[in-house]
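The protein record filed here.
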Amino acid sequence: MRWLLLLGGLFCSALQAQSEPLETVPLDPLSSAYLLKLTGGLLLVVLIIFVLAWVVKKFNLNQQSQNGLIRIIAGLAIGTRDRIVLVQVGEEQILLGLTQGRIEKLHTLAVPLEAPGEPLETSSFATRLSRLMGERKGS
């Protein structure tokens, strides 16, 4: 993440260093220089959107359940698009198989498993960030 911020800062400073003086000649809208600047700006905006979407997905910043009745206890990726997930609904725990087009109930656990600590889905962003920062200082 640091490298991405450093690279973005270097890119912005390079663009600022290459900027033309205040007295510029207006560009023809169909000139190659104008189209290159326009395309570069568009690609930069699209790249920023994809990076932000990746960050949201990586840190799981979207809320799973607002009221806490349904929680994801654990998950395991068994393929590129297939997962096995342990979900708790109230006091019942259900093992689900998730594929690209289906969600299938695999098993209902008779004795609920104890979750090791607080699940990530119910913790706030601030506690997750402080936990990550503490792990980084420790290593």
About this structure: Helices lie at 2-17, 32-58, 125-138. The chain has a mean pLDDT of 79. The first strand starts at residue 70 and ends at 77. The longest helix spans residues 32-58.
